[in-house]
Structure formats: structure tokens, C-alpha cells
Amino acid sequence: MIYADQAATTRMSEAAINTMVSVMKENYGNPSSLYSFGQRAKEILEKAREDIAEVIGASPEEILFTSGGSESDNQAILSAAELGRRNGKTHIISSAFEHHAVLHTLEKLKKSGFDITLLDVHENGIVSPEEVRNAIREDTCLVTIMYANNEIGTIQPISEIGMICRERNVLFHTDAVQAVGHIPLNVRTDQVDMLSASAHKFHGPKGVGFLYARKGIRLSSLIEGGAQEKGKRAGTENVPGIAAMAAALKEAADHLEERAAKVSALRDRLIRGLGQIPHCALNGDAVRRLPGNVNFCFEGIEGESLLLLLDDKGIEASSGSACTSGSLDPSHVLLAIGRVHDVAHGSLRLSIGEELTEEEADYMIQFVQEVVAYLRGFSPVWRDLCAGKTRFIL
Ligand SMILES: *Cc1c(COP(=O)(O)O)cnc(C)c1O
Description:
alpha/beta
């Protein structure tokens, strides 16, 4: 099998698995217990907090453990909204192609009276800092822009946006789930106030993540109960998961540059190869994109059919279409960069990791080329395009 869906989730690293197993076997105490066995679990927790803080340039007390990216996004946005409302500020700025964990939280806030501005992400899939500046109003309480997009991999000008928000005294949150462990980032130099991350996107376990919140920002809790995580997230901590997350992140950070260089070269090889297919287009900026992200639209085919045929050949990939939700609506991300519905339906995302070989990349190129030609062979849409009845867009 060639696993090319790393943006959906990643395989746990050996370091993360070993850490997790060892904590489960030997340190199953409750970190809130006062006896020494509990306190050992507490030490593991606090060591993980230090290690994670160091990787992103934060202080340990600024790291809150959560169940993953979705929870972190929810907590960051709802906390900023609560702070805003108290000061009579009910305007939030975000972008049209955020993850649903952000967009659906914003929709909920809209229903309770917030005014939401979703900025355009343009054809290249990049938010303009100038447009962020122009959108900020007296009553803006939050700007939330993702670090890198999960479908098309485009990396946003986070430090520029951070600078603008700091100048205007507006809180800035970034969903960095796709960025952490993959590209260099630092919460201080980027001037972000809150940042969300998820372990399973950087070779850690599923169901665990963290929220960075700059010192002085009052978070509201989503889960009430015990006093864990300074009263901001009740419930006995997922100690094995948290320790494994720290191990995975440390390893990712230690190898970040060499892996990013290797993966980017494979990405560009795939982009060159797939770009040979007639009537196709790369989605998102070719340069300002995650090392492992390749995303194309092929005119005249359905992304789902392409995925199923790839799966038959042992290639696990994804389409921009929201097939997981059982809906036939094309991806909101592809629509946001201006792809029309028909074109957006014919999308393919390959998100690759450092274990991919050049031979496997070439195999994928060849096979995708063949399958696209095969599917076009009996596509009525393609026949009409070729007969001149409808016009090619790509
Ligand atoms: C995967 C992902 C999430 C959700 O993270 P979970 O840990 O699965 O809840 C949020 N945002 C982005 C950009 C993602 O890629």
C-alpha cells in the first residue's frame, strides 16, 4: 500500500508508540493523586508540556492539553468570543477555506449575534494581510486564519497577519494543525495569541492535541468538572497520549528540515508528472505550500471514481469532495479558490510523507495518468467537452 493521505492522519512514530506503551504499563497513576505514583504521572505530563512548549517557542504554562485540533479550535474561538462580548466587541474575521472545526464554530457564534467576515483566499489559496488589515474594525475581537490549508496545502502569511493584529490590539488565533511538526514556526516571532495543534497529524496518537494560549489570555472551558489544566479543561488527563504526542513532536522537530527537503522534492516530482495530464490544474500556490501536499483538478472526471480505482491499486488518497460526509457538494476549499462545481468534483489530493520513495511517486504518476484517461473514455462530460458542445475551463 502507498499511503498518500497524511493530511487526514499519519502513522504513529516508533518513539510515540514506545512512549505510549511504557506510560500505559508503568505510569498509570492519576496525575491529580497526591501519592508519589500519581506524582510521577504528573511529572510526565509536565515534562511533555515543557517539550511541546519548547518546540513552538512558548512557555510551558501557555500549553493546554485537549482532545485534538477540533477541540482546540472550538476553545480558542469561543474564549475570544466570550472576552469580546464582555467588551462589546462582536466582530470576527476568518477566511473562507478554514477547517470545519473553525467554520462551524463561527456559524454557531453568528446565530448568537456575532458578525463574521470571511476573507477571500484568492486563486492561489492565500489570504492577503492587507485585506486582514482593512477588515479590522473597532468591534473586532478575533482574527482566526489557519497556518496551512489541509486540502490544498497553502501556507498563510501568519507573521504578517500576527503583526497587524498585534498593532491593532486584536486577538489572533491560528489553526496550525497541518503546520506543526511539518514546517518551522514560532508563536513569539509569528505573534500569534492562540494556536491549535493535533498529535495525529504529526505521527502522534489520535484523540490528543494542544492549545497554545499566550500568557494573560483568559480561556473559557468547554468541559466543566475537576480542576485539571488550571480549571480550563476538566477530566483526568490522557497521560499516555500526551507523552506520546510530545515524543512525536520532538522527533518531528529534530528532523524537520531534512524531511521537509526530501518531501518537497517528491511533491515537486509529483506536481511535474501529474501536470503533464491534459486539462488539469494544480490547486493552490505552487511554492507557498506544505512539503507533502499535491492537489489537482482534472476536467471531465469524478474525483470519487478516481479514488476508488486508485484504492484498487493500493494507493490511498483523497479527493477534495466532501465524500466523507456523504454529501455530493464539492469541497468548500476548492470553491473558495474559484473552481467551478464541475471542475471541483474532479479533484485529487495526495498528501505524502518522508517514507515515500521516488519509485512509488513515479508509480503514482503513471497510474493516475492512466486512470484519468480511462475515466475520461466513458465520461459524457468529457465527450461534450471534446465535441465542442461545452467549453474547457482548464
Ligand atoms: C485534522 C484537522 C483538524 C481537526 O483535528 P482533530 O484532531 O482531528 O480534531 C483541524 N484543523 C485542520 C487544519 C486539520 O487538518
